[in-house]
Amino acid sequence: QVQLVESGGSLVQAGGSLRLSCAASGRIRSINVMGWYRQVPGKQRELVASITSGGSTNYADSVKGRFTISRDNAKNTVYLQMNSLKPEDTAVYYCNGDITTVFGTRRLDYWGQGTQVTVSS
User: Fold this and answer.
1) Which residues in 74-107 are b (16+ Cβ under 10 Å) and which e?
2) In this structure, what is the dihedral angle of CA atoms 75, 108, 2, 111, given to the nearest 10 degrees?
3) Using an 8 Å Cβ cutoff, are 12 and 121 in contact?
4) For every one of its 121 residues, what pLDDT tens digit does the chain have, with 9 covering 90 and above?
5) Mapping DSSP to helix (H, G, I), strand (E, B) and coil, where does residue 51 land?
6) In whole angstroms, what is the distance from residue 67 CA to residue 48 CA?
7) Separation between Cα atoms, residue 69 and residue 36, nearest integer Å
């Protein structure tokens, strides 16, 4: 009843930029925190950045100063602007939502399908 759909992943050269988008749809009453995570094969999924409905943000140390998370509450969409990309940013990026449905149920683990970001050196 709730879907998160990411877009924007691509192959880019080191030093380049990408913008990821994640749109939430379905029977949504409210969205609290939205976040971006990433995962490489053989490693745990890690938090990249998160943003509350009020606009408070949190970033992993590895992306501070290079990535910017933002959201459009009217569109239930979260963005991740990634600048000065490095090869170590290569991963599958997943969108996560802490969402309450119109039925009153709340889950913190809504996930998108992931979008591949590859940074070449």
Assistant:
1) eebbbbbebeebeeebbbbbbbbbbbbbeeeeee
2) 90
3) no
4) 899 999 999 999 999 999 999 999 999 999 999 999 999 999 999 999 999 999 999 999 999 999 999 999 999 999 999 999 999 999 999 999 999 999 999 999 999 999 999 999 9
5) strand
6) 9
7) 8
